[in-house]
Amino acid sequence: MTTQDKKPSYRGTKSLKHALDIVTRPVFLKRGFAENRIITDWNQIVGDSIGACSVPRKLTFERDKKSGGTLYVEVSNSGFSAQMVYLEPMILEKIACYFGYKAVSRLKILQNPQNQIQQQYKPQKKKVMSKENIAQLENSLAGIDDEELKESLRKLGQGILSE
Hints:
The structure is a single chain. The protein contains 8 helices and 3 strands. By secondary structure, it is of the alpha+beta class. Among the domains are: about 80 residues, GMP Synthetase, Chain A, domain 3 (2-Layer Sandwich), CATH 3.30.300; about 30 residues. Strands 1-2-3 form a 3-stranded mixed beta sheet, with helices on one face. Strand 1 and strand 2 form a beta hairpin. Helix 7 runs antiparallel to helix 8. The chain is elongated and about 65 Å long. The mean pLDDT is about 75.
């Protein structure tokens, strides 16, 4: 059997994240984000408290370098801007730990006077089910014998019926 006779093999489906990376990569590259994960995983990198009040806007590098860049971060108000100056070494360390190399060596803080960041990235309040919805859900699940399926459907129902 020659190499020409071999049929191409497919190794299953690709994840949605992989497909989105292909689509969004040109947009992120235009804004200087060679590592688009710095945007998509910002809250994981810096934590929810910092991530709720800040957004990475642009990443620049010196010519022909892919490390030691300057990250432009937009913050929601001047008070938090001052705090970000003091948090800079910790944030840079967190970014380096996340990527495994010193991708960013400097932060530039940009203030957003409209407070749009806090409105965009507010943590969502926990949803609560009413007693009527709980009873209705339990009645719907009463005829199901498989406990694993029953628990999965219960979680799905809680997500749908929560207020």
